[in-house]
Amino acid sequence: MDSRFLQTYVHVVELGSIAQAARHQGLTPATVQQRLRALEADMGSALIARSGRTVKPTPAGTRILERARNLLRDLRDLRSAATESDLPAGPLRLGATPTALTGIMPPVLRTWAARHPHIEIYIEPAPTTLLYSKVLAGELDGALLVHPMFTLPKSCVWRDLRREPLVLVTPIDMVVEDPLAVIAREAYIRYDRSVVGGRMADDYLRARNLRPQVRFELDGIDSIAKLVSEGLGVALLPDWATTGASPAPVKRWPLPAPCPSRTVGALWPRSGVRSELMRAFVELAESQAAAGRQDRTRTDGPPRKARQP
Question: What average pLDDT does the segment 96-113 reach?
Answer without folding.
Answer: 93
